[in-house]
Amino acid sequence: MIEVKVNQESFAYDIHSLIKAFYPEEEVNVREKETFTEDTFLQIAVDVRDEEIEFALYENQALQKKSRVCVKNPERKLVKNQLKQLIYSVLSDYTGRTLPWGTLTGIRPVKIPMAMLEQGSSNVEIADYMRSTYLCSNEKTALAISIANREREVLKGLDYQDGYSLYVGIPFCPSICLYCSFSSSPLKLWEKQVENYLQALFSELRFIGKAYKGRKLNTIYVGGGTPTTLTASQLERLLGVLEECFDYGYLKELTVEAGRPDSVTLEKFQVLKAHGVTRVSVNPQTMNQKTLCLIGRKHTVEQTKEAFYLAREAGFDNINMDLIVGLPGEELPQVQHTLEELQILKPDSITVHSLAVKRAARLRLFQDEYREMGLKNSQEIMDLAYLSCAEQQLYPYYLYRQKNMAGNFENVGYAKVDKAGIYNILIMEEKQTILAAGAGAASKFVLNADHIERVENVKDVAQYISRIEEMIERKRSFLLRCGTGI
Ligand code: SF4
Predict the structure, then answer these.
(1) 102 alpha carbon – ligand 1 mean position (Å)
(2) CATH architecture of 157-473
(3) Who lines ligand 1 at CB under 6 A?
(4) Closest ligand 1 atom to 259 CA
(5) pTM of the model
(6) In what helix (H) or strand (E) does residue 237 lie, and over which residues does it extend?
(7) C-alpha–C-alpha distance, residues 424 and 444, integer Å
(8) 226 C-alpha to center of ligand 1: Å?
(9) Phi then psi for 314, rounded to 5 degrees?
């Protein structure tokens, strides 16, 4: 356990995030008063004063490091940057480690170069700023800047003011993967409720369609869960309701996740295609059967390949495949094998996720055997993924991080030139309002560049069905309150 005493609690969150980045598996407590238990192996004291910031580190109560800096500018954001630089330099020195993203701990690092590009900064100026202010590595700086430039290109011409996107959640899966952190329910348990769920969802979609009539719907993302757990006729009805409620005149992308290969059929893909779905995602996560069994994905590698070819057969020319690196028992050779298998399939985009330690911890709770296995990710693995994608002309187009990711890396979407997922960029850059329908769905209203508000639905499927009027009312009253609709 790591105990941190700070004299200004308003910095507690930033201090906690950065220390966690160095010690992802340790419990870190940051408080105003000093505490010490017998599990405490590191004690840290942070003093932020008007003139100076001081940082002291004790191991088993013996002082190891002490460092201080003069405050250059009292503006809070600048003090925070200086504080994080100080913590970083002491911990980096003490642990002998550097972090690829330096002091950046937020989940949207690309927002920084994006904002600077919009203000007219050059790539060189942005690179200097990211390296000197956040101590980002050269590689991550270059990655973030190249993605920001590509995102700008993809989003060019989108109307942020009048345009919006729509998320539709189908919270059912054939079975629950052991690392799952989404609110998904096993279809078998909920089969009898699927119809009721769809009725509730259709009511919510009808409300949104009416409330946003006259606005420009730019992208739709049907995710979950696994939307393709619905039958072909249920998918047909869902897509029919979308067509009935929304004007597709400005629609640039309609994605449906077909994530689990054990949920798809040619007929389902044909229904999607017939209703104008432009992009599907078939997710292998890994092409190693042993790992698939370990992580509770109850499908085979063969089924993944079949699902991919079915999507092609139905006419899809924009197929994404999701991978996870850092899975139990997987190191460079296993990841290499997965990437080679994907090179044979030739998807149009690949999203490489780095397993978050939080999820990995949940994995370990389930089976003792995970305890014996390393959960490894490394720059070498991330580089391998980058090179493999580049060989297929798939280049990075969006990026996000999660708290406590294996190796403190990131999730990166790679895509062919014209196959970048626009919704994925929009959700990361928070440029446009995203209305969300379904259990656990959270709508994000972008009121202006600095003001975003969330309106959330309940997660529980039964609650969502029984309280659907209340979910609609939440949106209605929010829209009335901020005067943006109805
Ligand atoms: S397919 Fe995705 S949403 Fe479904 S259980 Fe697995 S991780 Fe969760």
Answers:
(1) 31
(2) Alpha-Beta Horseshoe (3.80)
(3) 173, 176-177, 180, 182, 184, 224-226, 259-260
(4) 1
(5) 0.91
(6) helix 232-245
(7) 14
(8) 7
(9) -75, -5
- Of 257, 238, 262, the residue nearest 176 (C-alpha): 262
Which overall architecture, per CATH, does domain 1-96 show? 3-Layer(aba) Sandwich (3.40)
From atom 5 of ligand 1, which residue's Cα is the shortest distance away?
Answer: 176
**Atom of ligand 1 minimally distant from the CA of 184:** 3
CA of 263 to the centre of ligand 1 (A): 12
Sign of the CA dihedral running 355, 361, 366, 367: positive
Mutate which of 170, 172, 177, 230 to test ligand 1's pocket (most atoms within 8 Å of Cβ)? 177
How confident is the prediction along the chain (486 residues), in pLDDT tens digits per residue?
999 999 999 999 999 999 998 988 788 999 988 777 778 889 999 999 999 999 999 998 889 999 999 998 889 999 999 999 999 999 999 999 999 999 999 889 999 999 999 999 999 999 999 999 999 999 999 999 999 999 999 999 899 889 999 999 999 999 888 878 777 788 888 889 999 999 999 999 999 999 999 999 999 999 999 999 999 999 999 999 999 999 999 999 999 999 999 999 999 999 999 999 999 999 999 999 999 988 888 899 999 999 999 999 999 999 999 999 988 889 999 999 999 999 999 999 999 998 765 555 455 555 555 555 655 677 888 899 999 999 999 999 999 987 766 566 889 999 999 999 999 999 999 999 999 999 999 999 998 878 999 999 999 999 999 999 999 999 999 999 887 655
What are 252's two structure tokens? 């640039």
Determine contact, residues 34/18, Cβ cutoff 8 Å. no
In contact, 206 and 246? CB cutoff 8 Å: no
Closest CA to 164 of 441, 447, 399: 447
Q: Domain coordinates of the chain in residue numbers?
A: 1-96, 98-148, 157-473
- Ligand 1 atom nearest residue 181's Cα: 8
Task: State in Å: Cα 281 to ligand 1 middle.
Answer: 13
Which residue's alpha carbon is nearest to atom 2 within ligand 1? Answer: 225
Count helices and strands (H / E) in the chain.
18, 18
- Atom of ligand 1 at shortest range from CA of 297: 6
State in Å: Cα 426 to ligand 1 middle: 22
**Residue 365, CA atoms < 13 Å, CB-side half-sphere:** 9
Hey, which of 226, 230, 282, 327 would you mutate to test ligand 1's pocket, going by the most ligand atoms within 8 Å of its Cβ?
226
Nearest CA to ligand 1 atom 3: 225
Question: Using omega within 30 degrees of 0 as the cis cutoff, is the peptide bond preceding 259 cis?
Answer: no
